[in-house]
Design the sequence.
């Protein structure tokens, strides 16, 4: 994991947080050192490097987490077999809508 740049590690942790794949949350503040981020990821994953791809193998079974790979040549993540632009996706603003009409909430 030392071969992955720090901004890409932070983006991966943001993705974990956004999708709520792990609890408790992993702090991903940019003021934390790269070694601290790697230590936190090492608690959850056992990285395996095959050729130029790092596979993040979960240490504990978690059905929410899809297979994650990092391509060192292309410098991008593959999640569940699809190449995703994690830096762009992790920095997207949350989408929400404010409705100014009355509504009723009911609790069973």
Sequence:
């Amino acid at each position: 994991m030392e071969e992955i740049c720090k901004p890409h590690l932070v983006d991966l942790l943001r993705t974990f947080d956004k999708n709520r794949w792990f609890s408790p949350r992993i702090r991903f503040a940019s003021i934390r050192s790269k070694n601290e981020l790697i230590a936190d990821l090492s608690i959850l994953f056992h990285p395996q490097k095959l050729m130029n791809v790092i596979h993040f193998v979960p240490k504990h079974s978690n059905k929410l987490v899809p297979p994650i790979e990092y391509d060192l040549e292309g410098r991008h993540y593959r999640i569940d077999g699809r190449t995703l632009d994690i830096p762009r996706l992790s920095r997207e603003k949350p989408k929400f809508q404010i409705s100014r009409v009355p509504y009723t909430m009911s609790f069973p």
Remarks:
- The mean pLDDT is 86.
